Amino acid sequence: MTQIAGADWLARDELQRLLKALSADGEEARIAGGAVRNALLAEPVSDIDIATTNLPQETVRRVEAAGFKAVPTGVEHGTITVIAGGKPYEVTTLRADVETDGRRAKVRFGRDWKEDAQRRDFTINALYAEADGTVVDLVGGLADIETRRLRFIGDAEDRIREDYLRILRFFRFFAWYGTGRPDAEGVKACVRLKDGLDQLSAERVWSELKKLLSAPDPSRALLWMRQAAGVLTRVLPESEKWGIDAIHPLIRAELELGWTPDPLLRLVAIVPADPERMVGLAERLKLSNADADRLSQWAKTAPVISTMPEDAFARLLYRGDRRGFIDRLRLALASARARGIEDNKALIEAGGFSRLLAYAEQWRKPEFPIRGRDLAGLGVEDGPRMGELLRELENQWVDGGFSQDRGALLDRAATMLRN
User: Which residue intervals define the domain Poly A polymerase head in the entry (predicted)?
Assistant: First the structure.
């Protein structure tokens, strides 16, 4: 009998009291899905979901009687979010899909645990655990956990037609938990049904892509998405003629240099530095303003040569986008390190990029010490002439290494006005 009784989170008093309240008087409640999977794989557990035979209204009544807060976040699909001990738990009534259109499903509530398990996507996501930690496996998920095999429940095409997002989820979960080659039937089903991705909202597509790109090493999944399934270019056509070769050295550099995995940097590694196309990509996937701006700035930032002196680089940083230069340098450093295995020149380049990257990461933009009111004190009227004079003074200040103070700049302004 497989157990997760040693999991610290399972022993939480509020979770045990919640499970007890939902399991009284002939009803049942079990931990479901990701928390069980991650506990068995010795992976971190964040969200804890609960499946129950209670109907939503009864779930609300029971949890409130137990002193917890109930929030009807998805009551039409049977989901109540319970706040217990300051933590949210999604409690969902057992259900079956009665109608699907590839994006959303109509469900009916039930009491059959196997039917509930069979409506889920992958075997490793359809495991349950009792309050005492006993794992309940109704679809063969434990065997797949043992081999880290990602496999659709039942017929792969049937599962995908229920929700075409499962194509992206297949590669996302493979990136996080799979080993070796992905399940052949799953890949074939993704290839055959990839046109269904066009039905999905941009927000859902980007959410899955971002989670995939956040995996410790998404390179194998991206390779299969591109070469074997044609899925990557379906949702990210910008990668079609660019390739994903840069992702491998980037992942290696992250591991060896201690960089935090960055899904946006991994994205720019597999798309061209074309400002116009990056604007289109951001609009199509409905990226946040911050993410869209970062993509745009990276694409507009010119590459830096590894031998550039730091004073010259400081001028570029001042006039450009610091984040864009950092992204450029990280990719250049990762590429040079990879080539440096067989090329001494590339090793020297890597040293230069590393130096400039360290400089950019600690660099803070200095503040130009002159304002329009300073020039007004010298008799300059507000208008185009003042703007021209400010720009000229700022350019001289930047070109001089930011060394002139306010007094020296005012003296320079007075001289310029006299001349």
Answer: 29-151
